[in-house]
Design a protein that fits this description.
Blueprint: E1 4-8, H1 14-24, E2 28-33, H2 36-45, E3 50-53, H3 59-73, E4 78-81, H4 96-123, E5 127-134, H5 148-165, E6 170-177, E7 180-181, H6 184-189, E8 198-199, H7 201-212, E9 222-225
Parallel strand pairs: 1-2, 1-4, 2-3, 4-5, 5-6, 6-9, 7-8
Helix pairs in contact: 1-7, 3-4, 4-5
Length: 232
């Protein structure tokens, strides 16, 4: 039986690339996203994939989705929390409810996800829990007040889980993406940008694959990826 990889936030960019990469590597893929139509299209491409339309910010919906996946495919070997809530504006411009919503997606969903899958993964020999993050987890730039606080909290939560679960055989890692992801809407927004300004979703997925399969003697927690020309 193929090992199971659960991926949240399976959109047209990194999420779909992650699903394709792990499917290519022999995993059965369980895909979570709010857009069920998009998941159905990707399912047609990935044999055996399990599409689950789910808002991860809803704890009951997430719990139901994970129970359905476990009933159909058993416990996962790899879990990737790629779902993201984002909003941009100064602290005076953003609606407080938006920050709270983003916290639910970025932080609380990770908590609920880890609480559900981590014990079962340990019982079944371990695996990897990977969180996709970005530079906002390390700094609060102007106009990022609705986003950066949630990503910083997400990184710290992931580190806390990693320190607890690592000795038990579960590799928890934070993949920090310091770049603009190459998807249609970012190409439209940055029309004059050169190709090497963007990070390719497939390259992100390749790095996540590498992290998930690191030798146990050389696990990493914080991994940064950025285009070679990126200022940092």
């Amino acid at each position: 039986m193929n090992p199971l990889a659960i991926i949240t936030g399976v959109g047209p960019g990194a999420g779909a690339a992650l699903a394709r990469r792990f499917h290519q590597g022999g995993y059965r893929i369980a895909m979570l996203a709010r857009d069920g139509e998009r998941l159905a299209k990707l399912q047609a491409e990935l044999a055996g994939a399990i599409p689950v339309a789910c808002d991860v910010a809803d704890p009951a919906a997430l719990s139901s989705a994970l129970a359905r996946i476990e009933a159909e495919a058993g416990p996962p070997k790899v879990v990737i929390h790629n779902a993201v809530g984002g909003a941009f504006g100064s602290f005076q411009e953003i609606e407080p409810a938006v920050l709270e919503r983003n916290f639910q997606v970025n932080v609380m969903a990770l908590l609920h996800l880890a609480r559900s899958v981590a014990p079962k993964m340990v019982e079944n020999g371990g695996g990897a829990l990977i969180v996709t993050g970005n530079t906002s987890s390390l700094r609060g730039k102007a106009k990022f007040a609705g986003f950066a606080p949630t990503k910083a909290a997400q990184r710290i939560l992931a580190e806390s889980i990693a320190r607890e679960m690592g000795p038990q055989g579960l590799h928890v890692a934070y993949l920090m993406i310091d770049a603009v992801i190459d998807v249609p809407w970012t190409r439209e927004r940055y029309r004059d940008a050169a190709d090497d300004f963007f990070i390719r979703p497939a390259a992100i997925a390749d790095e996540a694959w590498h992290i998930a399969h690191q030798d146990r003697s050389a696990w990493s927690f914080l991994t940064e990826v950025r285009p070679f020309a990126e200022t940092w």
